[in-house]
Design a protein that fits this description.
Layout: E1 2-7, E2 12-17, H1 24-37, E3 51-56
Antiparallel strand pairs: 1-2, 1-3
Length: about 60
């Protein structure tokens, strides 16, 4: 699980492994995937905060190998 903040302009900050897979290479790949997606779409104009916190769970199944 990767947690991060999305700034109002869509920039990703505070990227971190919230729950490790136990395999450092997989954790780094997940971090890189989110970092490479930045910037994300801007937060809606009606969003009152300057950012929002999000988390993304990456799942790998045996079929992926």
């Amino acid at each position: 699980m990767i947690s991060f903040d999305i700034q109002k302009n869509g920039t990703v900050t505070g990227l971190q492994v919230a729950r490790s897979s136990g395999v450092p290479a997989l954790d780094r790949s997940a971090l890189r995937a989110v970092a490479d997606a930045s910037p994300l779409p801007r937060l809606p104009p009606a969003w009152r905060g300057s950012s929002m916190t999000a988390a993304y769970v990456f799942e790998i199944t045996p079929e992926d190998f």
